[in-house]
Structures are given as C-alpha cells and as structure tokens.
Amino acid sequence: MKKGQLHLVESTVVIFVFFIMIMVAMSIYSNYQKDKLERMKIDLNEQKATQIARKILFTPELECSNNNARTLDCVEIQKLQPFVDRVRQNPAYYREEFQNSRVMIKWVYAPSFFGTFSAPEFFTQNPGDLLPTTTQKTIFDFKTGGESYRTFTFPVSLWDKRVVPEWSYFGWLIVEVNI
Amino acid sequence: MANRRGKHMKRKGQMEIFGLAIVFVLFILALLIFLKFSSDPDEDTAEDFMMKQLPTKMLQTMMKTTTSCKEQEVEVLILDVASNLDPTPPDYCNNIDVATQINCGTRNSYQELFGTGNVIGQIFTNSLEFERKDYEFEIKMKNGCEIFARNSTNSCFRANKINAETFYLTSDRGKVEINLRICENVESR
Asked: Which residue from A154, A143, A175, A150 is spatially nearest to A44, judged by alpha carbons?
C-alpha cells in the first residue's frame, strides 16, 4: 500500500470514528432530553390534578361556609346533587374548567344514623335508606377513555347541615386526570 | 528495510487507533459528567407537595369528624380519654377511669375511638389502607406513655420518604401528642 493510500484510509477511519462518536453523543443526549420531557409531562399532569382538586374544593357551588367564613378542605353534602345536576346541564363550561378529569367522593366514616335521621340522600340509593348504600359517587366524568391516567386523593370533611351544629363526616376526594 | 518500515507503520497505526479509542472513551465520559451535573436539582413535584400536606389534612379532617358518641368530635373524645387516665408510673396510661369518661350508651369514649368497629380504625381502613399508603399513627402523652398506636402492615421501617405531622391537644392530665407519619416505602416505589 502506498503512503498516499495509507493516509486516505487513515483519514477515512478517523472521520468514521468521529461520526460514530457524534452519533453516540446524539443518542445519549436525545435519551436524556426524552427523559426530561417525560418528567416535565408527569409534573405538569400532577400540577393539573392539584389545580383541579383545588378548584373543586374552592368552587362556590360546594364550599362549606358559616357566617361567611369559609372552611378549608370541606364539601357541603347537600350541595353535591345540585352541583352534579348543574354539571350535566352545562357540560361544556365545566369540561373547560376541569379538563379531562373524573372527580369522585368517597364516604369514609360517618356516625350511626337513627330514627328518621338517615344518611344524606346523595349517598343512598333510595330516599328512605337509613345508612349510606353507595360509598363512592362520581361528581363528574370528563375523562376520555382508553388513555392512561393518574389518581390523586385528598381527605375532606363532608358537612351535613341538616343538624345544628352540623355533623362532619370523613370523606375522600378522588381526582383522576388523563396523562 | 521495507519490512522494518512496514512494521513501524503498522505499530504507528495501532497506536493511533488506540489513541482514538482513548479520545472516544474520554469524550463519552465527559458527556456523561456534563449531563449529570447540568441536570436540574431534584425539585418537589406536585405529588411530593400533596404527600407533604396529606398528614396535616388527614389529622385536621379526622379531628373534626363527628362520632356516634353523643355527636362529639374525635378531638373531644381523645381529650376525654387523656383526661381520664393516669400517665404516671406504675399505671402508664393503662389505667383509664371508665366511670368518668363520656358515656356513649353501650360504650365509653375509649371504646368508641379505638374499640371494635371503631372510628379511628374505620377511617384508616377506608382511606390510607385502601389506597395502600403506609403510615404510623400514635396518640401519646407528651414525653410520656402511649395511649393508642396503629400502623399499616409495612409501617415506615424501610421508608425512603416520610411526611409527618404532630398535633397537640391540652387535656386535664397534660399535653396530648398525636403523630401521623405517612411514608413511601422502597418496595412500593
């Protein structure tokens, strides 16, 4: 092999190796960026879920208030059914407000009911039922099917204003958000 | 002569390739180090933020929950239990004066809170345990004996993240400490 040819082969090898180095670097960097984007997407969805949960807890249609003082992390049970009906009547407005999410209320603990004082109607199947028959109820469901979603849960007080002073039940707010 | 020159050229070529390999390895190392140090420091995600708030919200909601015992709140019953026990030796919280406790009909405030089908048990079973969140819950006299304790099967033994909250109540027998630790265990991640 002549000296010129040898130089040519050497240059080709160097360029080839350099090219491989750039390819490896690009693939590592793109993987890193992909991971970072994935993390950002997850974080964004988590923020979205917290925002939706906050919106639910602060929505005037559900808030607990006594003498104009608002109680935090509290939902008034008697306002739940009217709110569900309202969402059904204006789905476009509430879909924009709560995006692709599903919000449910779970009944965790309540004291015993007796006589004519039965569980709130929102959690019973028949109006006369003494005890809650449905422990979990959907408030609205704007979640699009088939996609993956994340679930976030928050403890909330469920206020029953049929008695004075009002009874407070332990509830669980479940927010599912499409990822 | 030509043979010797050929051998010399071959060795030189090998050395160059070896040099290139070293440059290649160094380049990858430098890139990895750059990526490691240029990445953003770990920030609290929204989920971390919610997990941090969870013990506080759990305790706040629990304390205000109405019980079947004369429509009293959990907080009132805990205070009643603490006010009717002897936190000093040799009793160490074991001797609770049943007669002076709030009478809830068939049971007293201690049984209402911690007995079978009790308030605290139902709350934890239907919330944190249902969500498979590990926790440790404890009610004790401040710097003293334990009144009640409950934890999930895994407890916080191998937790890599613990979010905790302590509430204090003042009873006739001194301060009552209510601790809730919600943890993220290594296995559950």
From this structure: A150
For residue A159, tell me if it sits in a domain. yes
Q: What is the model's pTM?
A: 0.77
Query: A117 is in which domain, residue-wise?
Result: 39-178
Per CB-CB distance under 8 Å, the chain B contacts of A172 are: 126-127
A119 within 8 A of B66, measured Cβ to Cβ: no
Q: Give burial (CB, 10 Å; 0-12/13-18/19+) of A7.
A: exposed
Asked whether residue A76 is domain-assigned, the answer is yes
Does residue A8 sit within a domain?
no
Per-residue pLDDT of chain A (179 residues; tens, 9 = 90+): 677 888 888 888 888 888 888 898 889 889 988 988 888 887 887 787 778 877 887 888 888 887 777 788 899 989 999 999 999 999 999 999 888 888 999 988 888 777 667 778 788 877 777 777 778 899 999 887 766 777 888 899 999 888 888 889 999 998 888 76
| ipTM of the prediction | 0.76
User: B57 and A169 in contact by Cβ < 8 A?
Assistant: no
Out of B13, B47, B122, name the one closest to residue A109 (CB).
B122
Q: How many domains does chain A have?
A: 1
